[in-house]
Specification:
With 76 residues, the protein is mostly helical. It has 2 helices and no strands. 88% of the residues lie in helices and 0% in strands. 1% of the residues are buried.
Length: 76
C-alpha cells in the first residue's frame, strides 16, 4: 500500500471517528449540565457558562481534526 492510498483511506475514517467522539462528548456534557440545572436551578447561569466553554473546546478539537484531514487530502 502506498502513501496516497493510506491517506485516502485513513483521512476520512479519522474524520468520522473524530466527529463521532465529538458528538458523544457534547451529548454527555449537555446531559450533565441539564442534570445539574435540574438539581440547582439557581445556579443555571454558571452551569450554562461552564457548559458552553467546554462545548467550545470540544468543537475546537473537532475543527482542528477537520482542517488537518483536509490538509492531508490536499496531498493526494
Amino acid at each position: 500500500m502506498d502513501v496516497q492510498t493510506a491517506i485516502a483511506l485513513g483521512a476520512p475514517l479519522g474524520l468520522a471517528l473524530t466527529a463521532f467522539a465529538s458528538a458523544l462528548a457534547l451529548g454527555k456534557a449537555v446531559a450533565a449540565a441539564m442534570d445539574a440545572t435540574a438539581r440547582q436551578p439557581e445556579a443555571a447561569t454558571k452551569i450554562l457558562v461552564n457548559m458552553m466553554a467546554g462545548c467550545a473546546l470540544i468543537e475546537a478539537l473537532t475543527l482542528y481534526a477537520l482542517v488537518f484531514g483536509f490538509s492531508l487530502l490536499g496531498k493526494l
